[in-house]
């Protein structure tokens, strides 16, 4: 089965995302999303117990995870073990390393119904999967995440635009979990991190009812030729995820 061409920046066309290896192997869109979201949920819960904040290390693990499944099918490599290997790799690439044993122990503690093996076997599985992961991503550890841009926009609002610090903090507190939960979608495969950050910061401003800020078109200083229609499209990916979770009783928004 042929694999999609890997773009230099790992940003794929919509058709390539819809025609992923898992889909070509017979999995429906819903099945693929459900299983990938289970993997993301495992990473976020284990990352929390490891003491990782929901930003660089966990975010990098999520990006590795999504990139891997543009090259391999879930049928061949089930999501749970891949998720643990992505965490193991991200800990090292983001300079917050965690022992394979620690990751495996937490996984067995909280997801015993998912990982039906002993500790030694799970550790072997994680390290073996890490080798496949490294070869698949071609040892490309370059991960740019939206979080730093959220901080940059907040600082810009406070310094250059002299907006009230409490108001800006309120917007950031809304935007941050939107970025966290964007990893439950395919956004990191379809859009550059700065565009995701601009769009979700724009959404946070709307949700916090500070529309007068968006009327200034502040984002034009950061991303050229970004129209509101594109931002709406990106925001609806996250909002649609929340709607789905609310209707299904699944995991909700990040705290």
TrEMBL record:
Record's keyword terms, sorted: Cyclin
SMART domains registered for this protein in UniProt: CYCLIN
GO BP of this protein: regulation of transcription by RNA polymerase II
Cyclin-like domain residues: 41-135
Keyword Secreted on entry: no
InterPro entries given in the database record: Cyclin-like_dom (IPR013763), Cyclin-like_sf (IPR036915), Cyclin/Ssn8 (IPR043198), Cyclin_N (IPR006671)
GO molecular function: cyclin-dependent protein serine/threonine kinase regulator activity
Similarity comment text for this entry: Belongs to the cyclin family.
Cited PANTHER family: CYCLIN
Name used for this protein in its record: Cyclin-like domain-containing protein
Species of origin: Pristionchus mayeri
């Amino acid at each position: 089965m042929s694999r999609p061409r890997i773009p230099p920046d790992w940003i794929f066309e919509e058709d390539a995302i819809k025609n992923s290896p898992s889909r070509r192997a017979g999995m429906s869109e819903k099945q693929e999303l459900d299983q990938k979201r289970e993997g993301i949920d495992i990473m976020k819960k284990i990352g929390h117990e490891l003491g990782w904040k929901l930003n660089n290390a966990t975010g990098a693990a999520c990006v590795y995870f999504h990139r891997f499944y543009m090259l391999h099918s879930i049928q061949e490599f089930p999501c749970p073990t891949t998720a643990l290997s992505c965490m193991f790799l991200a800990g090292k690439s983001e300079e917050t390393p965690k022992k394979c044993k620690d990751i495996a122990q937490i996984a067995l503690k909280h997801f015993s119904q998912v990982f039906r093996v002993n500790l030694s076997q799970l550790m072997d599985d994680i390290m073996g999967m890490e080798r496949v992961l490294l070869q698949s991503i071609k040892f490309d550890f370059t991960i740019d995440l939206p979080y730093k841009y959220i901080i940059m926009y907040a600082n810009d609002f406070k310094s250059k635009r002299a907006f009230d610090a409490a108001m800006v903090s309120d917007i950031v507190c809304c935007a941050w979990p939107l970025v966290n939960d964007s990893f439950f979608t395919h956004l990191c495969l379809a859009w550059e991190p700065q565009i995701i950050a601009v769009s979700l910061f724009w959404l946070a401003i709307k949700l916090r009812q500070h529309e007068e800020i968006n009327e200034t078109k502040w984002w034009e200083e950061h991303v050229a030729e970004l129209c509101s229609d594109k931002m709406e499209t990106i925001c609806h990916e996250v909002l649609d995820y929340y709607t789905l979770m609310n209707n299904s009783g699944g995991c909700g928004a990040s705290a």
